[in-house]
Amino acid sequence: MPKRNVILLVATCLVGLVALAARERSGHALRFGEVLGAIQRSYLQPVDGERLFDAAVEGVVATLDENSAYLRDAGRDELEAALDQRFGGIGLELALDAASGLPVVVAPVFRSPAWLAGIGAGDLITAIDGVATGGRTLRDSVQRLRGPVGRAVELAVLPAAPPAESLDPAAAAPAVEPRVVTVVRELVDVESVQGDRRQADGSWEWMLEGEPGVAYVRITSFGERTAAEFAAAAKAIAAEPELRGLVLDLRDNPGGLLQAAVEVCDLLLNAGLIVATRGRDADNAGGDERQATAGEVLAGVPVAVLVDGLSASAAEIVAACLQDAGRATVVGSRTFGKGTVQTLLPLSDGRGLLKLTTAEYVRPTRTPIHRRPGAGDDEAWGVMPQEGFEVTPTAAAAERLREWRRRRETALPPGSIAAAVAPRGPAPRAIDAVLAKALDAFAAAW
Fold first, then answer.
1. Where are the domains of the chain?
2. Cβ atoms within 10 A of the Cβ of 197, count?
3. What is the distance between the alpha carbons of residues 181 and 141, in angstroms, rounded to a whole number?
4. Contact (Cβ atoms closer than 8 angstroms) between residue 411 and residue 115
5. Which of 200, 187, 193 is nearest to 215 (CA)?
6. Does domain 86-161+177-189 have CATH number 2.30.42.10?
7. What global pTM score does this model have?
8. 193-445, which class in CATH?
9. Which residues are the active-site residues?
10. What is the pLDDT of residue 25?
């Protein structure tokens, strides 16, 4: 795991609690060791010590808060892959198909082994290495697809159903057999910064379709490379003639690395407080303050930030910072309200990882972002859109928008029988009510 922009500490291995109990004559360590010893000596069935320890630690951490966790094996690998924006696999975003219960390809990662093998959106994965996927969890299928770089995996792929040519509902669909595809796992890089639509060569078109002079950037999460990706996008956008506005879409963004959020804000500001964090110590009330530095990109260009109830953590830091600085108009619906910092604490044996809440952050106005248990809608938490720019689409409308955007973001795999440029549906303003409201904000500024 590479160096993080979050605090990484080396903690004493929790397994040492048992050894500590043997030395100490009182305290929690002695009692903990006594309980473990009694179970291992006297329980009806033999108990694996490692499993017993894991269960004990998970129980302890579960009493803290919903964002702290004890991670091992797959859980640790998934967290590290998400923050690294890189994993060993074939590059497929999967969901469970409601009709068949099989894993269905939402989208292949551009230029990934799966994409190069011609696997496309809508394809069903019926077997992995000869093991049927029906009746198994999505997590199980994902874990089977990931693995050591250079090792092959065999997939049985049922192609996505083509549009029906017959209007007769009684007409039987032609039988199609799955094709067997062997794909070699590679390190797959996941983009976290995307544009309005994918071009034929796989690059992003940053300018919003049908809206002259308006750029669109969507950040899906905040990982190791997010700030660099955003800086590259901003540089390309700045070169556009007659640039009149930037839409920064943070909807459905669960957050990620604090430092990545700070660096994205810094690119859009010349000075001022970005975010402040504060820990448990009374003498650390001021906490750590992150200030913007000179060198703003897109200076003078109006910015609109799109948020919703799934915008959380690092996404809320960016929205709050730009709103408090008067740099952006926030449009959409109130954000999730996750305003705590998790520190990653690798255990000394290298087999486990504590994700522990160690601080909270506040926005530049010093108001909290975190929604504490029991907090009401009239209390200060999260990020609220500016007055007059509140838009909350229905669940159905939000799902239609996600599907529409997937089509715009997905490059056709090699050998696809579809047209060179797939139909992408209506123009952005027509399908996205939140985006349309943001464009109204630009019109008022112009």
1. 86-161+177-189, 193-445
2. 20
3. 16
4. yes
5. 193
6. yes
7. 0.80
8. alpha beta
9. 313, 324, 338
10. 46
Question: Is residue 163 pLDDT above 80, yes or no?
Answer: no
DSSP-H helix ranges across 128-196: 138-145
Round to whole Å and give the CA distance between 440 and 107.
32
Q: How far apart are CA 94 and CA 425, in angstroms?
A: 22
Residue 11 has pLDDT above 50, yes or no: no
Q: Are 21 and 32 in contact (CB under 8 A)?
A: yes
Residue 248 tokens, joined: 């920064």
**Quick check: 267 and 238 in contact, CB under 8 A?**
no
- For the chain, what is the mean pLDDT? 84
* pLDDT of 16 higher than 80: no
DSSP at 209: T
Tens digits of residue pLDDT in 383-407: 999 999 999 999 999 999 998 988 8
Cβ atoms of 408 and 198 closer than 8 Å:
yes
**pLDDT band with cut points at 50, 70 and 90 for residue 2:** very low
Name the nearest CA neighbour of 232 among 254, 204, 255, 253.
Answer: 204
First to last CA, the chain: 47
Let me know how long the chain is.
446
Q: Which two tokens stand for residue 35?
A: 């309980």
Structure-model confidence comparison of residues 417 and 380, the more confident one: 380
